[in-house]
Amino acid sequence: MIKPDGVQRGLVGEVIRRIEKVGFKIIAMKLHKVTMEQAEKHYAIHKGKPFYEGLLEYITSGPVVSMIVEGKEAVKITRKIVGATNPVDAEPGSIRGDYSLEIGRNIIHAADSPENAIIEYKIYFAEEEFEVYQKSDEVWIYE
Ligand code: IDP
Ligand code: MG
């Protein structure tokens, strides 16, 4: 999910470019606003932490771009492309390392496990929004 700051700063294309170029297949994508109810579900694990209220305010503050991405080790590799949670620790070359400075404005969200990826995409997508298709470059990406 490209968070509201990523959308406002014109980084949608840049993020999608990186996801596409590594070889992943985007099987669902949309621009939408996160409702407070969705935000509470998404970040339930952080409830009670000092940054929780600010996080809900941030993620609901404007449109986001959400996508479901498929491919080998998609969670692990996407987290690497995204970079560490705190931009101070995010490597140059990662999205957060290249485009953000503060943990509370870190551009992008990515699921941290396949189990959470499923929980999270169900918050934002209905099954009808998935597109099942074959990508013609797959024979060159997978051996
Ligand atoms: P992640 O996004 O890398 O998975 P999490 O620890 O799950 O990181 O935290 C979720 C989001 O909450 C972060 O991406 C960041 O936007 C926000 N967040 C986490 N810790 C802090 C903090 O200490 N201050 C402000 N925001 C925070
Ligand atoms: Mg997380």
Distance separating the two termini: 29 Å
The largest beta-sheet arranges its strands as 1-2
The residue ranges in which pLDDT falls below 50 over 5 or more consecutive positions are none
CATH superfamily: Nucleoside diphosphate kinase-like domain
Reading the helices and strands in chain order gives HHEHHEHHHH
- Count of runs of 4 or more consecutive helical residues: 8
Helical amount: 40-55%
Report the CATH topology name: Alpha-Beta Plaits
Total tally of structural domains: 1
Number of strands: 2
Shape: globular
Proportion of beta-strand residues: 5-15%
Q: Compounds present? A: inosine-5'-diphosphate, magnesium ion
Radius of gyration: 15 Å
Estimated structural class: alpha+beta
Mean pLDDT: 98
CATH architectural arrangement: 2-Layer Sandwich
State the major sheet. Answer: 2 strands, antiparallel
- Text of the CATH class: Alpha Beta
Outline the secondary-structure elements.
Elements: H1 4-8, H2 12-22, E1 25-32, H3 36-42, H4 52-59, E2 64-70, H5 74-82, H6 95-99, H7 114-124, H8 138-141
Antiparallel strand pairs: 1-2
The structure holds inosine-5'-diphosphate and magnesium ion (MG).
Inosine-5'-diphosphate binds next to loops.
Could you walk me through the main structural features you see in this protein, from its secondary elements to its overall organization?
- The chain has 143 residues and is an alpha+beta fold.
- It has a single domain (4-132), classed as Nucleoside diphosphate kinase-like domain (Alpha-Beta Plaits), CATH 3.30.70.141.
- 42% of the residues lie in helices and 10% in strands.
- The protein has eight helices and two strands; from the N terminus they run H-H-E-H-H-E-H-H-H-H.
- It has helices at residues 4-8, 12-22, 36-42, 52-59, 74-82, 95-99, 114-124, 138-141; strands at residues 25-32, 64-70.
- A two-stranded antiparallel sheet has the order 1-2.
- It starts with a helix and ends with a helix.
- The mean pLDDT is 98.
- The chain binds inosine-5'-diphosphate (IDP) and magnesium ion (MG).
- Inosine-5'-diphosphate (IDP) binds at residues 51, 55, 85, 103-104, 106, 109, 112.
